[in-house]
């Protein structure tokens, strides 16, 4: 739909214009223009940044995956700063787009400096003023800078921090039995820039991120050996074994401050939940039931954790909560097969596996969303702001990672080699 409107612009004649009498120079020149405006249904107009060919496509792609309706098409002009909007703001207002994102890049001593603004079109106000970000002039730094800018733009518009600069770790398995090769991989939240962190002949299980987004803990089981938990810095360096104990050591979970680790282990008999320092040492046993207790996950406040137990009977796993202060345990999930619980960052939701389907429940155990059958015995993982989830599945015999919005944004998938397992979303590295 397009509408015609008349726009009056007041311009002051200057000495560079036609020679006019002083009395004429003091008077404004009123131009009446007849123009055609495309009426948009979008919430955000994005203008590619001046001097840039790297950041803008990534930022636009990030924002387009959210509930925001973003356009970069059919724009009346391409300003790169709010000062360029003087006199033409009514054109933008007539388009019905609430927000305008503009910016530019420049070089400074080998770095790339990006200035950008989010303009509230109705008032012309720049939200929190001009933003500036400096990045190294290489592909890795520029990709990260683009995600950080998208995070900030999303936050300025919605009031909620974005989740684009976090990363997703996952496992890729190729082969079976003694021929199995497992790779721990990390990719950007847009599904790009995947890298292998470690590769083993055997199996890798249940990776988890440290709160600062710089370390990953995971379990490794090689041929004829028990699973051992390792911690590894994502930026490089070797993996450090954390649990040199006999038995199965699985499902690590970092405490909110990163100083401790929860995990399940059978080194004292049946599987129970233990807590220990993230730098190693002697573990403390937290559960001691005749049943199996596995898959612990800290609550965001660190005062409790959820875990899975089959105390209700064989093949009847349920999700429970353990309170550190009292040692009290209560059942969280209602009847039915429930495993692999993971909290959202605000603690209000728990992602889990309901049978073979990825699902979300509230903290009281009521299911609030069914995300579909995965074909894999693993639950989804929340993005840092809780607005999206990532989960693994099988489609057409291929392993697929699906990133799905929980509030109306675009869902997309990324396929890989072999089987893909255990995706988990980190916060932005700091």
Structural write-up:
Helices cover 10% and strands 46% of the residues. It has four helices and 31 strands. The strands form seven sheets. Strands 14-13-12-11-10-9-31 form a seven-stranded antiparallel beta sheet, with no helix packed on it. Strands 3, 4, 5, 6, 7 and 8 form a six-stranded mixed beta sheet that branches. Helix 2 crosses helix 4 (139-158). It starts with a strand and ends in a 5-residue tail after the last strand.
Give the domain tally.
2
What count of helical segments does DSSP give? 4
In helices, the fraction of residues equals under 10%
Structural class: mainly beta
In CATH terms, what is the fold-level topology of the largest domain?
Neuraminidase
Alpha carbon gap, first and last residue: 46 Å
Q: What integer value in Å does the Rg equal?
A: 27 Å
Instruction: Name the strands of the widest sheet in spatial order.
Output: 14-13-12-11-10-9-31
